[in-house]
Amino acid sequence: MSNTGKVSPDKFQRMLQPGSIAVFGGGHARQLIRQCERLGFQGAVWPVHPEKKRVLGRRVYRSVDDLPGSPDACFIAVNRHQTIDIVRSLAALDAGGAVCFATGFNESGEEGEVLTQQLLEASGDMPLIGPNCYGLLNLVDGAALWPDQMGARRVDNGVAIISMSSNVAFNLTMQKRGLPNAYMLSLGNKLKFDLQDAIRVFAANENVTAIGLYLESISCPAAFEEAVQFARECGKPVVAIKTGRSDAARQLVLSHTASMAGPDELVNALFARSGVARVQSLEAFIEALKVLHLLGPLEGGRIGIMSTSGGDLAMVADAMEGLPLDLPELSDSTVKALKSCVHERIRITNPFDFQMFDWNDSKRLATIFEAFMREDFDAVICVLDYPRDDRCDPSEWSGAEKGMIRASRRTGTPGIILSTFADTISERIADRVIAGGVVPLTGTGAALDGLAAAVAIGASWKYLQHPPLLETEHRGDGSNPVVLDESDALNLLAEYGVRCPRMEVVDDSTSAMAAARRIGYPVVVKALGIAHKTDSGAVHLNLGNADAVATAVEEMAGLAERFIVAEMIPNGVTELIVGIHLDEQFGPTLLVGFGGVLVEILKDCATLLLPASRESVTGALLSLKSAKLLQGYRGAPVADIEAAVDSVMAISRFAEDHADRLLELDVNPLLLLPEGMGAVAVDALVTMDEHSEGVDS
User: Fold this and answer.
1) Nearest CA-CA partner of 614 in 649, 647, 641
2) In the prediction, which pLDDT does 262 show?
3) What are 75's strand-pairing partners?
4) Is the predicted pLDDT of residue 149 greater than 90, yes or no?
5) Fewest C-beta in 10 Å: which of 110, 224, 436, 611?
6) Which of 461, 494, 527 is the last residue of a domain?
7) Is residue 149 a part of any domain in this protein?
8) 336 with 212, same domain?
9) CA 626, CA 324: separation in Å to the nearest integer?
10) Taking Cα atoms as reference points, which of 134, 151, 171 lies closest to residue 38?
11) CB 210 within 8 A of CB 232
12) 466 found inside a domain
């Protein structure tokens, strides 16, 4: 029987916090030992090599059998075939776990797949990280299961970073921005220790303050969401970079990891419902983690800004445009307090230019900062560009720095020192600022993106959690789809509470006229079974009498054999599209956006995963670029948004109930009437798997 590979995340604790490390290999093994020594690792390090006698002054053991005990953690830096043999021997010795450095496993074709299964079988119940990875840095205990140089250092606590790229992990250890990094993990091929396992392990670790993810793929969205929910319960916010937005990036992901990157809009939807903040650069990634490390998720985006430079303030304020960050006006009490302690020529606003009058008076600066920071801000930024310390004297900046630290402590308002350039806050200064409880941020764009990430997480944490992601198993492969006609599709949706027009299906002009009389004029006549009806001349609107109905049917006789006669819905404010799409990885997904005949041109839509909460649907509608059209734009009536949400929720319930057979659903348009008058599904397309014939709704 094949080994499934997965072990409980709890079993990894022994190797993540080892008292003894066995290292196999040559040059990479030497580097690992050097890094353990540099970090001051207090446990035992046992080099293993069949020929060497000593490595860096340490005794070398010939094989696993010669080891003085069962190691808590092992790093295997030999070829893939030897790796399998060593793993088998370590598993028999009941070792705590191993990092497999070698490549050439399931990322490299059929032979690699065979070797992967052999590695899995050899490992038994022993935990593995990798293969094809750099491994693990435990910077709390100084344990480096790492085959290369790295720039990280010991910390008491800090963030955990999980990376699907070894090189990105390596690069992140070299950052000089002051980020306290407690753990760095390179996942590799995730044979027995997957992304969700790592999130859970680090979320439960008391030394971890926040979690950062560099992702190339998400193999199991439901498991990912559950792990992030666990992290939230542990008070550990998560920020992520996810590659694969471009076609080129997706191809690289395929060739590098042998896994498929999901559609980017679905990744965004997963992050949004999970409370994960997404950033687009490593710089913003580091800045976000610094904010989260010290401040955690922010309550809101009310930001105060101070500086001695109007130019700096203008640039920072401009950079906030489009981010969930606001610059609220100062209250009368704050203005009064500031007037009592600043020079009379200073204009008191937010952003606040306190100028240079009191630059050399640290006590007075602290008083000014404190008065400003007693305003109801979620965070206050002091823009402070330090001079370079190799040619200049930065000591004159200490007054502003100390004043900011003191004011933040005394007011309880989160404080940030922002350098507009990425290289004007040295690591030494960053360490000092962090020790004072203030966040040092570098580079305006990256800094504000990082701050916005903390605000976004704070906002998501205020809401109730979504039900678990819908997991379904399709019956059939969709090769023989059944397309329900418009009438059947609308009738099915009507049973779920979707309001639809009164309608009848007819065969000829005589029956069409009779149907129109029963329904009441004006009516719409449509050819049944025609997509893009407007383009094909397959719809006639606002017909007010029997002759017009008969003429419409006769003109469309060449397009279809059956027709729909339906009531004409008047006074529509705008048109939406509501769609359900089946994604191989994410399951049924919900799309809402502005619809009608211009849907392909506008492409103004949002994607949600199922099941979706009412709050998330409302938020998705109001987040659309054209959302003003829903709210009475330029004198137009306000749309019935609540009815729109009711309709979307009903369509979602239908999709959830038929998730094992539903292939596609499209309601376009969902006509929104003025507020209080409802929403009407005017047209619908439903495609079911072949097993859905005779759907019991």
Assistant:
1) 649
2) 43
3) 23, 99
4) yes
5) 110
6) 461
7) yes
8) no
9) 18
10) 151
11) no
12) no
Enter the DSSP assignment of 132.
S
Query: At residue 259, does pLDDT exceed 70?
Result: no
The pLDDT score that the predictor gives to residue 690 is 72
Q: HSE (CB half, 13 Å, CA atoms) of 299?
A: 9
Strand ranges for 219-317 from DSSP E: 238-242, 277-278, 303-307
The residue among 198, 233, 235 whose CA lies nearest residue 215 is 198
Unique residue bearing structure tokens 């109007």: 310
Residue 211 near residue 160, CB atoms below 8 Å: yes
CA distance readout (Å), 59 to 9, 71, 462, 470, 679: 33, 15, 56, 55, 78
Give the pLDDT confidence of 460-496 residue by residue, as tens digits: 998 867 788 887 665 555 667 888 988 999 999 999 9
596 and 457 within one domain? no
**How far is it, in rounded angstroms, from Cα 392 to Cα 397?**
11
* Residue 421 belongs to a domain: yes
Higher-confidence position of 624 and 213:
213
Q: Among all chains, which residue has been given the structure tokens 């090599």?
A: 49
Residue 254: band (very low, low, confident or very high) from pLDDT cuts 50, 70, 90: very low
Asked whether residue 34 falls in the same domain as residue 182, the answer is: yes
Last residue of a domain, one of 520, 542, 567: 567
Secondary structure, 3-state, 198-222: HHHHHHCCCCEEEEEEEECCCCCHH
Task: Render pLDDT for 326-350 as a digit per residue (tens, 0 to 9).
Answer: 999 999 999 999 999 888 888 999 9
Are residues 550 and 424 part of one domain? no
The token pair that represents 432 in the structure block: 């000092």
66: its two tokens: 């010669």
CATH number of 180's domain: 3.40.50.261
- Are residues 529 and 436 part of one domain? no
Q: What is the pLDDT of residue 252?
A: 47
How many Å apart are CA 576 and CA 671, to the nearest integer? 6
| Cα gap 350→101, rounded to integer Å | 53
Q: What is the CATH number of the domain that holds 514?
A: 3.30.1490.20
- Host domain of residue 651: 574-692
Instruction: Identify whether residues 221 and 135 lie together within a single domain.
Output: yes
**What span, in angstroms and rounded, lies between the C-alpha atoms of 98 and 145?**
9
Model confidence pLDDT, tens digit, residues 558-587: 888 899 999 999 878 999 999 998 888 888
Q: Where does residue 644 rank: exposed (0-12), middle (13-18), buried (19+ CB within 10 A)?
A: buried
Question: Same domain, yes or no, for 321 and 223?
Answer: no
Q: What is the DSSP letter of 629?
A: G
Buried b (16+ CB within 10 A) or exposed e, 44-75: bbbbbbeeeeebeeeebbeebeebeebbbbbb
Q: How many domains does the chain have?
A: 4
Q: Are residues 447 and 559 in the same domain?
A: no
Strands (E), 528-567: 539-543, 563-567
What CATH number is attached to the domain comprising 612? 3.30.470.20
Closest CA to 397 of 371, 442, 362: 362
Tokens at residue 641, please? 């948004």
Residue 330's region, left for phi above 0, alpha for psi from -120 to 50, else beta, is beta
Tell me what pLDDT residue 398 has: 86
- Residues 33-40: what's their mean pLDDT? 96
Amino acid at 575: E
Determine, yes or no, domain membership for 67: yes
| pTM > 0.85: yes or no | yes
Nearest 5°: phi and psi at 635?
Answer: 85, -5
